[in-house]
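Q: My collaborator sent me two sequences in one message, no labels, and asked for predicted structures for both. Can we handle them in order? The first one she listed is below.
A: Yes, handling them in the order given. First sequence, followed by its structure tokens:
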Amino acid sequence: MTWKEVFEGIQAFTENILFAPYDALRLGTDSWAISNVLNWILMIIGFVAFIYWMGQLKKFNENNEEDRSQTSHGYLGDVPEN
């Protein structure tokens, strides 16, 4: 067994076994957009989640529900008296 055979075995294992799920996601098309449908779906979900999260932060900020007193470091501002 030579080193070339070892590396060709690693290549065959990687291409045929480890990358098989990625080959299944290609959907057999030549179009970049269609091949990356999963990426587009995840980007849309992330964008919707970001918009929802920002809306929730705005809602809590407008209701003044958060305690914004500084208690950790004196150099950040006035230290509250205990």
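Q: And the one she listed second?
A: Here it is, processed independently of the first:
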Amino acid sequence: MARTKDRSRVLEQLAFGDIDEFNTGIYWNGAIELVDNFFVNAGLRYDQFLFNYEDQLEPAYRPQSQAKGIFSPKLNLNYRISPSWSIYANTGIGFHSNDTRVVVAQSGEEILPRAIGIDLGTTFKLAPNLLADFTLWQLDLEQEFVYVGDAGIVEPSGETRRRGVDVALRYQLRRWLSADIDFNFTDPIAKNEPEDANFIPLAPTTTSAGGFLFTPKGGFEGSLRYRYVGDRAANEDNSVVAEGYFLLDAVLRYRKPKFMVQLSLENLLNSEWKEAQFDTESRLRDELESVSEIHFTPGTPFFARGSVTYFF
């Protein structure tokens, strides 16, 4: 991480070092049918982390290392009411694997904050060829982390909670043509903060994805798919908004046992969109005071790409 001029000349190094992160884990998973059509799935995982960081800006410092282990249990319940209808409840505990620089800076304390999740849902067939899934869920994080670009650091920002609704539909229109669509609605909040300042920067609130997949005979196949992200808060009080986008992509391929020809079309509508977005203070040469506003990476415009693959 560095401050630069004209994106080429380095003015100041803010963060520069070598990172090594090692993770190994073991798990146990078991499933049992307690009574007819009532299934229980339980699991337990253990992860061991080793974090190493050597700060190249302070070469006199010795490499810093921290180790940490954590257990993550889960429990899933599923009851099949009929061949076309089932209900389920899933819960589990995971964790947030921190930036190694945060780990060594905190001397290994509170470096794997837990994530506690639960979801309740049902899966059912609305018609012989139409499958639907409806889920209510909640995710609590012991610690949320925010990347501060100008300082080149990751800082903790407290506990958060996300509650949401997911809706998924799968429809087999023909033997060679299928459609799917997912809707996701989320209410993300920072806990222990005032209502007018409890937004989680850049946390999505409305997303959707879906499209068509076709596989006719003769080796041809392809897809037409969209993805959507709604507007969302870019800072804690929602005074700066990160703009959402809608993108449409297509893929057409011809496949044979020995070769494949593919054409990919990205952003078919040639939409102007912002990919990475951050609320950051900046000041132009003729401005007296800095302004807090969106800094962004422009999204890819319409783009076509072809490829030929030969299988040995």
